[in-house]
Protein 1
Amino acid sequence: MIAAAVRCGLVAGFCAGVLAGLVGLVAGEPSVDAAVALEEPGPPGPPGEAEVTRPQQKMGLVVGTGLAGAAAGAIFGVAAAWAVGRVRGDAWARSLKLGATLLLAVVVLPALTYPANPPSVGDPETIGTRTTVYLGTVVLGLILAALAWAAGRRLADAGLSAPVRQTVVALGVVAAAALLTAFLPVVDEPPSIPAELLWSFRLGSLAVQSTLIGGTATIFGLLAARSEDSGAGVERVRATAPA
């Protein structure tokens, strides 16, 4: 089961990654081009130094997101295999639930806490710090999602109805996310580009990440549901076959 789920995840993640790269070309790269144009030209590099042009970077974006999507899809497949018997619903419903959870934990929470910046924004000396706190927020988001799932199971075992326990869990997640946002380290670096350009880049980054995760969950759900229906059909044929 895990091997089949990983194969589905690789396919789903690669397709979603390529789609996310195309979204990035349309929604994100114009902002990057504008931000790069605002940077002061630096000193020329040593003779013969290889330089990656912007067209090459844009082509690499699609290839890179496709490969990153395949890796993320494989992990998603493992999570989907774990969810069988633990998360309610068929393969399609489980995939969408996992996708929504990852979207909130890995994309929305970090974006609200440490939104993305284009190349010309931020002190180069703080890149390490910003990367660390961003990845830390992603980990905290995943932990918060796991705790929310465990709380939902406990409330279900206690006999609470679905509307009540979902409301309680949602309020708990919002309160915990607000506390995290309030107590996480602040990286205060005034933007050096127009606010309109900054937010255009951040929305484009959010669109790319949402496409990657949402696309992976959707494509994986379709593939898994088809496989699940095929398996159920085989079992029905075996059950009705003469002995």
Protein 2
Amino acid sequence: MSTRREALKTIATGALGAAASSFWVDSLVAQAQAHHVRAAVLEASWKPRVLTAWQDKAVGILAERIIPETDTPGALAAGVNRFIDATLAGASPADRTSFLRGLAWIDARSKSLFGADIVEASPAQQTELLTRLAADGNPDGEDQTGREFFQAMKALTINGYYSTEIGLMQELGDDGQLFSLEFKGCDHPEHE
């Protein structure tokens, strides 16, 4: 693929064309779409509310494999791992548990395939594992838990990335002139 936009278009099309996703994936994605990133997410003193330090690092690495740094910053620079943690903090306990179960699954799968956890695996190995999970028709027979986790991870990464200045302005070239015909405003109780 020649550009990141073409790659993301392919990922988005694949996500839409996949078999119906599990309820938890749909629920978590809806939570992410309703969630907005506050400036605090990018503060130096930020700490994860849901993810452990290792899980935060793993989520950041996986997000960076989905939207890597090219001529524009990637998912890590945009704070996508922080967006995902914030989304998980607002999610139902069941959805949060399902996501964390999927993260544990992908780590165990990395260990079985490469002899290294997902954080320690090489970038090529991380990409290979994600590619296996994204394959149409599941030719490698990957576990449903892993495939659902990857669906959620892709959707959360794309939502998180394109809700930031990096994603909107640097990647897409939005000059701030785009507008919505309807603005519902923030519905978080602390912002009313």
Protein 3
Amino acid sequence: MKMLNFAIDRIASDVGVILSQSSVYETEPWGFESEKEFLNKAIIVSTFCTPRELLKKIQTIEELQGRKRTEGVYRSREIDIDIMFYNSRIISEVNLIIPHPLLQDRLFALVPLAEISGDMIHPVIKKTVSEILKDCQDHSLVNKLPDEK
């Protein structure tokens, strides 16, 4: 939880104002085997960063927490921060695709996102996050953790 809180604090100081945060969810790994569970949380941030600047800043936050990049390989890592949406923009550039191309396939991302932004319309799929969540074929475990005191 300490790493998650550090990342959120750095996003607030380096990226922009955090407008909303979901609960924390403990989830199974997706796309690979791992002995440990993961913690997931969604946040909504108001930022003046361009999408490319935002990516650079969150990658710096990941690196500060020990993230080593291995392209194309799913494996356990200390931290993984993804950009799910950037308002309703559609971006397809080298190393930057928004909305996140696998969002609709991942309960671990959809559940926390639906908690805080269920009415957000996916600009490609043209459904709300809540509708996409209902249609998701992923059956991984996603357990909401009790709120911290």
